[in-house]
Amino acid sequence: MEKLLIEGGHPLKGTVQISGAKNSAVALIPAAVLADSTVTIDNLPDISDVETLAHLLEEIGGSTELTKDTLVIHPENMFSMPLPNGRVKKLRASYYMMGAMLGKFKKAAIGLPGGCNLGPRPIDQHIKGFEALGAKVTNEQGAIYLQADELVGARIYLDVVSVGATINIMLAAVKAKGQTIIENAAKEPEIIDVATLLTSMGANIKGAGTNVIRIDGVDKLDGCRHSIIPDRIEAGTYMIMAAAMGQGVIVDNVIPLHLESLSSKLREMGVHVEARDDSIYIETQPELNPVDIKTLVYPGFATDLQQPFTSLLTKADGSSIVTDTIYGARFKHIDELRRMGANIKVEGRSALVNGGSRLEGAKVRASDLRAGASLVVAGLMGEGVTEITGVTHIDRGYAYLEEKLKGLGANIWREALNAKELEEMKSL
Ligand code: EPU
Q: Against a cut of 0.85, is the pTM above it?
């Protein structure tokens, strides 16, 4: 096991290239199960979630070739192998194997997913969708068993706007008989990306990116080649780092439209933000204004950027309120920021950040992926060295983090945990 060390206070300058979107990749790889021939996915981020999913496809009989940012998937020999335990528990997105395997084989058994602990994360809307399509769904010993004689299109209204449920129902419905209509669907760009892949495979999907998606089932899906959209959350994280420490940073290979809510909030803080064709230029200012943020479904402020943004707010001159309406308990980073000297109070779904004092390097632990990102932001801003354990969480979502940050002038490196730290990590 390793820890990340960051010596804070170094200005950031230069260009950082953004990788393909994690939250698209983790849905696109399971989607390949639905094809009858080779699917090639390009612009993949080099993160551990991608590797885990590629291994899962091999467990069900597929063969995969993963090079730097391309995954070639041969689904011809896949079969409906039950996956109640093991790798499926490592990441939340393994739930997409439910929709994909149900859609392809009419049968699946998948262990309830792991992933970041952000408080309760039910999957009732996924199940509601599968059942509406005709599947019998049971929950036995921590795994979901799905079975259908045939899947028939249905009209499904989501009670909660859910990215995962929208994608999972699309996966289960693309080969169902007749038309499926998903109402109150999520509109995130990753949903459009998955619909684009499925359409290239021969699916008939209309309305992805709006709140009503219509799917006309087809009998057969073929292989195709698809390039993943840029990761708006990785990009947003670097924009936040640049807003804190950037003396001219270009966040390159992005779709600026996907980052508008963040750009607006950074501008409100007084940060210089300039959207270009496929990049965003950021320059911090000596004084930053406090701002309130409330996380919302897309195109609102992304919950995944709430944690890194909170670190930035400690630098603002005054008080800001951060409210997370998506995950009301997504505040595990706050205790760690306090160790670094931040003055933040959590009340219910909100955190009150009293900014203005400089953070100090400390030993902190990443409890989940974006909590890790928030600590990296804090480490870059802090005085002295910050040591971050729980790095495996960060590695699930940020490709080449140290290389990218070193390229911008940060002083960041990795070390193996010493015996005492290993003991501490094991006891958690
Ligand atoms: N919800 C339900 N029932 C459901 C599904 C969701 O009540 O059946 C609730 C959730 O508890 C949450 C809200 O609906 O309060 C939204 O959840 P959603 O289903 O949209 O989240 P998700 O699909 O599980 C994805 C991303 C998350 C991101 C959320 C919100 C992936 C693999 N994960 O999760 O990303 O926070 O959407 O945008 O796409 C991350 O990247 O760090 C991450 C956690």
A: yes
